[in-house]
């Protein structure tokens, strides 16, 4: 067996998000978030579950950091709950919220685990949503105020900063299709929300750079490698359109100061015009230090004129799928890494990769062999991408522990740590021991 050894300082981590693990939804002065409101709305979430308690990480963070150290993590990606810091989104600060994150960061540093902070992972202060949320351009300014405060408090303690998690998902699932908070259904509004999210990103990057902090800042984008159903001209064009919409819409403004032309033309054809000030793109394209990508699966697309927006349809792939119904396609990770590095020549972190399986706790163990296989195959593709020239800096498994999977509630388990929600007991799955070995050996058997 050939050993695939990663670069010496390659960062092995896991990822979580505040609303999905913290609980304490209205404790110690925290303000309501859009996800508190959305998950309290009957019918929004599987079995009307919510994140009120989640993994109770707010109270159990010390135990959780100990488990991270037991696995040997080099880094831990987590998000800060904006309304836990600014209950109303801006103005009054909640000192108990600041103290929680200060204690968490110090615990991580004590264990030599690098904190990687996501400033915003979708839990917007409800008070700002009440003023229009991401449809209101002022929210971008409020975000930069929030970010500036967080940088002021933790900027010299934290080496990796991510402004936003997946603006595409927040904008389109939250403002176009109604599947996520705030549950709106307006396609034009989703593009406006997406633009204001990018503006918020750019303002936060400017604040970070003006602060002279010594870490790195970037953004996390969800990406799925795209393949044609056939090699027909029409299907090849469908690939271009899908790639531009789902992968590049939030990347091109940062690196090229404009939205992908192919989509812009479709919007104009559908009478969706936007008067985004050109000066916004100078802010949005403030130079970042890395691109974070979340990769889970690929898309196969075919031309479909009955789809009046993008003119395409998705085709199910032939391979095995995870509990989310997502096709397992590790080569897609290699392909998207090669494509993105070819186009933007910027350091990349895989800020999320992982799989949901119907894990069973039996005799105190969780034998999640399918997840181990999923992780092994994707880690191998990460290695091959580095071998072939990609400046890949790190890999974060989604997720450290089972948690609240948005509209699916607790029905999908992504963790390498099993959470018994009745007792809040944590049990390392076999995949945690697999990952411990990968980290110890800084590599994997081919
Ligand atoms: C296509 O998957 C997306 O890129 C994606 C998958 N995931 C995500 N984004 C989010 O960043 C996480 O909060 C989810 O818990 C996680 C698992 O669903």
Automatic annotation (TrEMBL):
Source species, domain of life: Bacteria
Gene Ontology molecular function, alphabetical: beta-glucosidase activity
Record's GO cellular component terms: cytosol
Keyword Cytoplasm among record annotations: no
Active site residues according to the UniProt entry: 166 (proton donor), 352 (nucleophile)
One GO process term, biological-process aspect: cellulose catabolic process
Keywords, alphabetical: Carbohydrate metabolism, Cellulose degradation, Glycosidase, Hydrolase, Polysaccharide degradation
E.C. number: 3.2.1.21
Pfam families: Glyco_hydro_1
Catalytic activity: Hydrolysis of terminal, non-reducing beta-D-glucosyl residues with release of beta-D-glucose
Binding site for substrate: 20, 121, 165, 296, 398, 405-406
Signal peptide: none
Gene3D superfamilies from the UniProt entry: Glycosidases
Family according to the record: Belongs to the glycosyl hydrolase 1 family.
Annotated PANTHER family: GLYCOSYL HYDROLASE, LP05116P
Protein name stated in the entry: Beta-glucosidase
Source organism (scientific name): Dictyoglomus turgidum (strain DSM 6724 / Z-1310)
């Amino acid at each position: 067996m050939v050993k695939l050894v990663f670069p010496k300082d390659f960062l092995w981590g896991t990822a979580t998000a505040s609303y999905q693990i913290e609980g304490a939804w209205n404790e110690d002065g925290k303000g309501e978030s859009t996800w508190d409101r959305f998950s309290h709305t009957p019918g929004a979430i599987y079995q009307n579950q919510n994140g009120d308690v989640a993994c109770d990480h707010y109270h159990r963070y010390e135990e959780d950091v100990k488990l991270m150290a037991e696995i040997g993590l080099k880094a831990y990606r987590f998000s800060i709950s904006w309304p836990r810091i600014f209950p109303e989104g801006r103005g009054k600060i909640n000192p108990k919220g600041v103290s929680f994150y200060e204690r968490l960061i110090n615990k991580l540093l004590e264990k030599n685990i690098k904190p990687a902070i996501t400033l915003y992972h979708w839990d917007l202060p409800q008070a700002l949503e009440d003023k229009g949320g991401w449809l209101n351009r002022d929210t971008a300014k409020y975000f930069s105020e929030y970010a500036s405060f967080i940088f002021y408090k933790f900027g010299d303690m934290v080496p990796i900063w991510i402004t936003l998690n997946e603006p595409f998902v927040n904008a389109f699932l939250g403002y176009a299709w109604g599947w996520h908070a705030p549950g709106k259904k307006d396609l034009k509004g989703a593009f406006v929300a997406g633009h204001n999210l990018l503006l918020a990103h750019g303002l936060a990057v400017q604040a970070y750079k003006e602060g002279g902090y010594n870490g790195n800042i970037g953004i996390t984008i969800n990406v799925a490698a795209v393949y044609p159903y056939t090699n027909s001209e029409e299907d090849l064009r469908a690939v271009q359109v899908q790639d531009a919409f789902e992968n590049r819409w939030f990347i091109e403004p940062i690196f090229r100061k404009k939205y992908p032309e192919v989509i812009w033309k479709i919007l104009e054809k559908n009478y969706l015009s936007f008067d985004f000030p050109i000066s916004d793109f100078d802010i949005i394209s403030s130079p970042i230090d890395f691109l974070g990508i979340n990769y889970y699966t690929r898309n196969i697309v075919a031309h479909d004129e009955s789809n009046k927006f993008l003119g395409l349809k998705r085709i199910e792939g032939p391979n095995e799928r995870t509990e989310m119904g997502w096709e397992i396609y590790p080569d897609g990770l290699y392909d998207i890494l090669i494509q993105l590095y070819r186009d933007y020549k910027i350091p990349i972190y895989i800020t999320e990769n992982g799989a949901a399986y119907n894990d069973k706790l039996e005799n105190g163990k969780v034998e999640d062999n399918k997840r181990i296989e999923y992780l092994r195959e994707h880690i191998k593709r990460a290695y091959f991408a580095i071998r072939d020239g990609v400046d890949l800096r790190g890999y974060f498994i989604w997720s450290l522990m089972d948690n609240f999977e948005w509209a699916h509630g607790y029905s999908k388990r992504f963790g390498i740590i099993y959470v018994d929600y009745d007792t809040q007991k944590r049990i390392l799955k076999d995949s945690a021991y697999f990952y411990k070995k990968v980290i110890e050996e800084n590599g994997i058997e081919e």
